[in-house]
Structures are given as structure tokens and as C-alpha cells.
Design goal:
Elements (H helix, E strand, L loop, with lengths): L5 E7 L3 H13 L5 E4 L27 E3 L15 H17 L6 E2 L3 H13 L3 E3 L3 E3 L2 H17 L3 E3 L4 E7 L2 E7 L2 E10 L6 H11 L3 E2 L3 E10 L4 H6 L4 E5 L6 E8 L3 E6 L4 E6 L8 E10 L8 H15 L5 E4 H6 L5 H4 L12 E2 L8 H14 L12 E9 L3 E2 L12 E3 L10 H15 L4
Parallel strand pairs: 1-2, 1-10, 2-7, 10-22, 18-19
Antiparallel strand pairs: 3-6, 4-6, 5-13, 8-9, 9-10, 11-21, 12-17, 12-20, 13-14, 14-17, 15-16, 18-20
Length: about 450
Amino acid sequence: MPEPKEYDLLIVGAGPAGMFACYELVNKNPKLKIGLIDMGNRVEKRTSKDVMSGFGGAGTYSDGKLHFTPKLSHERAFDVITPDEYQTILDKVEVIFNDFGVNAETFPKNPEVVEEFESQAQRYEIELIVRKAKHVGTDNLKNVIKKIQDYLEAKKVDIITNTKVEDLIIENGKYKGLITDKGSFYSKKVLLCPGRIMARWLQEISNKHKIEYKYGMVEVGVRVEFPAGIMKKHADSLYEIVYKVRTNTYDDIVRTFCSCPNGLVATESYQNYVCVNGHSNSDHKSPNSNFAFVVEVNLTEPVENSIQYAQSIAQLASTIGGGKPIIQRLADLKKGRRSTWSRIKKSLITPSLTDVTPGDISMALPHRIVTDIIEGLERLDLVMPGINAGSTLLYAPEVKFRSSKIKTTKGMETVIKNIFVAGDGCGISGTITGAAATGIMAARGILGEY
């Protein structure tokens, strides 16, 4: 049996956090011996079934939107870093992406039109959130990720794929290494950035080794699909449309995000359930557009585990859908009846995702969330006319897990010395660029700069 390998640093997860931490480290201290471990494949070997793991992380198969304004999920980092400092890191993330081939146009465009949208939203007590963004496209993003992978290997980073980390080796309260399904690895320090797919694992590890964290909120709802013309004016100026609407019955916040102009609805497969997402390819234009429409869920005592709550909803929806997402016309949802393929064919649009089960979303999602979605779309129609049409298609479940937020220093070190975290899996980011920024923060913490 070969001797276990020893490193200066092991990084768990080759998503944006792991990649950008590596980039920062190899450029500041080329002598570091780094092992980058991922449970999935190298990026060139990933398939459409490997959406959630592999080099590049879940973002590789996302819509390829990169955000560079510290709003929404970026704000989670403000517990440990000032917005101005964070913006500086976010600017560096943009430069690095550009260096590796991101040459997409920048949004928003047409400031006058954006002001018009903001003014209109304010009249109806709807909040429009405007962020600087670039749309790379799912197809182009994979090429960028491949260049980063090749760069890190050229810098002697040991990329270890198809290897699942099972536990930490901690002796007398001190970190020593990792236990994996391929044997043990040892290092002086470790950076845990396993992504959303392994957020629950990270929570279990934290419980076992007494790493402090607090539960985060989750977002539960649907993916909304409609004729592309309804959102065209918004997309041409903003590309990304983030509206926050407060509902009448429950006074809840429902918001749009992950808008995909001329995009496709896609399935995300987890271990025992499925969810939906959306993406847009840079060279393929669908006649439909889509966005997520979700309700913020932030549980308090006695049931604080919002992740488990959201997973139970996703599992129920998957059971009702026979292991597939559920699709329903908005008109059928409002009438309290399930959709059938014959009813869906009456819609103005053809579904972009057909490996689905026509059904009744109200059988899967809690009544409160269904009410919020119906009322939210009615309000949203005031600023996006046509979105509340009966032929609008809804896919469920759309669940965004905001992982338990692990307590860290500014340098992303946990309460256990030499154990660092970064990215979505530790609850401190929620986007590709946010994960990348926290990876750079962790790298600086590892180097002792913070």
C-alpha cells in the first residue's frame, strides 16, 4: 500500500472557491505543495449529468452569469470584511476571469431605461435590484474553467478527482489530515469548500468536530417560463432581472433571480430528489425565457434547520413527480386542478424541459409558498406585463439552499486552527463570483495576510 501523501495545504472542492484560492496561493507562494480534491471529474470529462460536482463546481453548468456588485448573497461576507474591501477582491475576481478568456459584454446598459424600470417599480412598491453582471454562457464558461484547470496544473497543483472526502483527522484538537474513499491525505492546513451539494456533509462534520455555525435561510419556489418577448426590454438593458415583491396575505418576500433570457429550463439531480434550474447558451436562442421565483424561508426555534426543511419539500415534490420535476400551467394552479399534457399543449409556449411530470404544484409545495407565488406573479405583472398569463409555465421544485453559515475570521479560519472554509457550502457566498472572492479571502488567511 502506498504511503499517504503529505501536503502543505489540502483543498476540498474544485469549484470557484477552491480554484481562486489556488490561484492566489500559487502566485504568492509557488513553493507551496497543494492538493486540490474533488469528488467529481476533471472539467473536460464532465457530462451533463455531472452538474453539481467536478472541476469548476456547480457553476460550470449554470447560466454563466458573473456578478460584480456586492449585493444580495455577497452581503453574507460582511460579517468579517467591509463592503469596500470586499469590492476590491471582487474587482480582482473580474480581472482574473477576464485574463482567462471572459470577454462577455457588461450589463446593465442604457442607464435611462434602467431608471425608467426603477421608477416604475417604486410606484408599485416593488424593489428592483441592479447589479453589474457579465453573461458568459454555459458553453463558454466551460472553456474558461478548462484554462484555469490547465494553469493550476502547470503551477504544480496536484488535482485529485473522483475522490470523496469522508472525514477530518483531528488529534488532540489539532487538524492533521483527511480521510477519503481513496485513503488518507495529510497536510498542515485544509480549506473546505465542498459547494452546495456537500453542504449537509459540511454541517455534519462541523457537528462532529464542534466547528461553530448557524443555520441560514433557504429559498423555495418555482422556475417560471414564458414567451421571451415579455422580458425582452428588461433583458436588453439589464440581462439579469431581480425584483423583490412583498405579498399581501403573508407579508412575505418573493423574488426573481437567475433570469435566463431566451434560455432553457434544466434539471438538477441530487442524491434522492431533483430540482430545477435555468441556463442560457451564448449561441442558442430559445423562444422562451425563464427565471426563478422563490420565497425566503428563515426558520426559528424550535425547528431551525432550514436546509432539512427545504430538502423535505424537494423530496416530496420528487415523489409526486415520479423522480422528475413537476410542470403546471399557471391557469391550472389558480383553478386548483392538475395540469395534463393536453392542457399544457394549449399554452402559447412549448416547454423547454420535457422530462417532467404534469401535475399539481400545490400538492408538493406548502400552501403559504403557493399563495406567495400566485400573489407575487400578480404583483410582478404590473412591471412585467404578461407574466401573469394563464399559459405561463411553472416548474417545481426550485430550491436554493443557503448553507449553514460557519463562524470564521476575516481570513476564513474556523474555531479550529488551520481549518479554513470558503464558498457556498459554508454559507458565506451564493454565486460563482462570491465563492471565488471568499476563496481569495481564505488564501490570504492561509498565508497569514489577515
